[in-house]
Amino acid sequence: MSNRVVQGRMVTPEKLAELVEGESVLEAESITDADRDCPECGGDVISVGYMPSVTEFVTGYKCQDCDWSDDDRE
Predict the structure, then answer these.
(1) CB-CB neighbours of 2 under 10 Å
(2) Rounded to whole angstroms, how far apart are CA atoms 66 and 7?
(3) Model confidence pTM above 0.85
(4) How far apart are CA 13 and CA 1, in angstroms?
(5) pLDDT score for 2
(6) I need a labelling partner for 45 at 20 to 30 A (CA). Which of 30, 38, 55, 64 fits?
(7) Distance from CA of residue 38 to its chain's centroid?
(8) Do 60 and 70 touch, CB atoms closer than 8 A?
């Protein structure tokens, strides 16, 4: 699993998913580059796929430089 620096701290995929979700998740995939810039600060955005529950899979997005985060829920 790939760890990344987010806002000056090294995070695991599970910790990144928790930052996006706001609570613990069941499982998380590897962190990847999202190939987009943060809409708030222009910083690099990374993504992680995770399962917040046994019936849901979500892709979360988090800026590496500021507090901005989002997910692909409709």
Answers:
(1) 11
(2) 6
(3) yes
(4) 7
(5) 82
(6) 55
(7) 12
(8) yes
Which residues make beta-bridge pairs with 32? 47
Main-chain phi, psi angles of 42, to 5 degrees: 85, 5
Query: Could you give the 3-state DSSP secondary structure of residue 32?
Result: strand
Is 42 in contact with 28 (CB distance < 8 Å)?
no
For residue 52, the one-letter residue type is P
Helix extents (H) in the chain: 13-21
Instruction: Dig out the tokens for 67 from the structure.
Output: 């507090």
Q: Which residues contact 42 (CB under 8 A, 6 or more apart)?
A: none
Select the more confidently predicted residue: 13 or 1. Answer: 13
Helix (H, G, I), strand (E, B) or coil at 69: strand
CA end-to-end span of the chain:
28
